[in-house]
Amino acid sequence: MAVDMKKEQEREEIHRSIWAIADALRGAVDGWDFKNYVLGTMFYRYISENLTEYINKGEIEAGNKEFDYAKMSDEEAEEARDGLVQEKGFFIRPSELFVNVRAKASDDDNLNETLEKVFNDIEESAKGSEFKERFAHLFDDFDVNSSKLGGTVAKRNERLVKLMDGIASMNLGSVENHNVDAIGDAYEYLMSMYASNAGKSGGEFFTPAEVSELLTRLGTVGKKKVNKVYDPACGSGSLLLKAIKILGKDAVTVGFLGQEINVTTYNLCRINMFLHDLTPDKFDIACDDTLVNPYPNHWDEEPFELIVSNPPYSIKWAGDDNPLLINDPRFSPAGVLAPKSKADMAFILHSLAWLAPNGTAAIVCFPGIMYRGGAEQKIRKYLIDNNYVDTIIQLPSNLFFGTSIATCIMVMKKGKVDNHILFIDASSEFIKVTNNNKLTPDNIKNIVDAFTERTDKDYFCKLVSYDEIKEQNYNLSVSTYVEKEDKREKINIVELNARIKEIVAKEQVLRDAIDKIIAEIES
Asked: Do 439 and 399 meet the contact criterion of CB atoms below 8 Å apart?
């Protein structure tokens, strides 16, 4: 319990630091851009300290007890550049480390130019690495010359100093042992602070941490390790990384892969990977349209044992306007493409194509795809006839930022042992927090327990046979199979009639008594 309290205090301390930075920049940078500046600076501090610690550790183990990379000259450090680029994927000169740039920041009249050069140098250094694409354009959204920071160079630099000071004050653990949980929490806190403001215009479909955890727990029931984790619409990557919390970093043996169409969010995702202490060989994120130009696109690659995703709801896509897609091995088995105005089922089929025989895919879905007719019904028929749908879960409304829709989760497997589908009505599994609903650890446990046990429970879950679903024209709506509990007060008619009869009798006695009194008064 003491450990939990300590972690909670650390979290609150970091949240206060973020608010302090927001306060220092208030009126200058709006929420969505502020997030990019804070995360960019956190990333700069993190990789600076991470590289320093890596070099120092090697020197100290070699007997050089007083060594400190941050105090070396750039010329001396250059000798180790090539080796470090191969080992770490990047290189930072001592003079360009966060700690050294920050030490001179308040006296640097050209701080914006200094930072711009540092960021360019870091990206350039990575070009000598086999993982150069992991670093390319990472700092593009950290515009040190933006008028959003201030109308003059002096104003911009003043705010850049406040930004660096604020990030430096964050308690992210010692240089030797960065607290990855604290960094990850700071990331999620920042994202959730501004997800509702950004909406779709910010290109961000942020998945709350509790929903991410539920998806990952559903996808890892009975497993202690998986080969790879994949998200075809990965956003800022927080959903991908939940496997670290649930299974542990080493339990994902090959790595984390994802694809994101929005460039800004793609950059945030790569930063998030680094902030969770993943080395460049452990993640690969692509920036492109998943449905038209998928990554990975090499069909001889090993499929994924865990796929978790919250794709954008009912967006437009090429569909049958692109004659190549109907022959695409992801979509051709279903014999029909998802409607051009609703790409939801295309994401489902894409994920299924990359799912390992022993894998699990847990995907947040727009509820309409569970019951609409036309092409979506034909795709449901394909999924159900081939026994790929394992479980459908109805979630509470108002869980996500920017929408109050009550979404669903579709869990798919290729190695089912029966041809039944479990339906879970989790629409009441939440607590209310300010304007949103939230899943608690108990709510998550209740859902995962039902998913694992796979037995009927009145008003909560039901295991339904293939034949019954076929009779319902392949409808996958939870409400079709799980009866809602009638919480209206039940009335005993016999008892009620007896009470009415008694009241009427008493009323008659009173009337007789009143009539008697009136008769006496009149006489």
From this structure: yes
Q: Which two tokens stand for residue 514?
A: 């009143």
Task: Locate 351 and state its tokens.
Answer: 């994920």
Q: What angle do CA 330, 332, 335 make, to 5 degrees?
A: 135
What CA–CA distance (Å, rounded) separates 370 from 409? 10
How many CB atoms are closer than 10 A to CB 426?
25
CA dist., res. 110 & res. 101, Å (int): 11
Rounded to whole angstroms, the Cα distance separating 476 from 470 reads: 10
Residue 181's CB: how many other CB atoms inside 10 A?
15
Beta bridge partners of 289: none
Nearest to 36 by CA among 52, 55, 21: 21
User: Each residue of 72-107: pLDDT tens digit?
Assistant: 999 999 999 999 999 999 999 999 999 999 999 999
Number of C-beta neighbours around residue 99 at 10 A: 15
The string of pLDDT tens digits covering residues 107-139 is: 999 999 999 999 999 999 999 888 898 999 999
CA 209 vs CA 216, 228, 306, 465: distances in Å = 11, 20, 17, 33
Per-residue pLDDT tens over the stretch 227-244: 999 999 998 898 999 999
| Closest to 451 (Cα-Cα) out of 502, 514, 393, 408 | 393
Quickly list H helices, 220-311. Answer: 242-246, 263-275
Residue 317 is which amino acid? Answer: W
Which tokens is 446 given?
């209740």
DSSP state of 208: P
Among candidate residues 228, 246, 216, the one with its CA nearest the CA of residue 295: 228
Q: Are 361 and 352 in contact (CB under 8 A)?
A: yes
Q: Could you give the C-alpha distances from 148 to 26, 37, 41, 157, 495, in angstroms and in order? A: 11, 11, 16, 12, 72
Tokens in use for 229? 């984790």
**Segments in 313-361 forming alpha helices (H):** 344-353
What predicted TM-score, i.e. pTM, was given to this entire model? 0.86
Cα 489 to Cα 510: distance, rounded to the nearest angstrom: 31
User: How do 408-413 and 389-394 pair as beta strands?
Assistant: antiparallel
Residues 6+ apart with CB under 8 A from 457: 450
Instruction: Concatenate the DSSP letters of all residues of 65-97 into one string.
Output: TT--GGGS-HHHHHTTHHHHHHHHS----GGGS
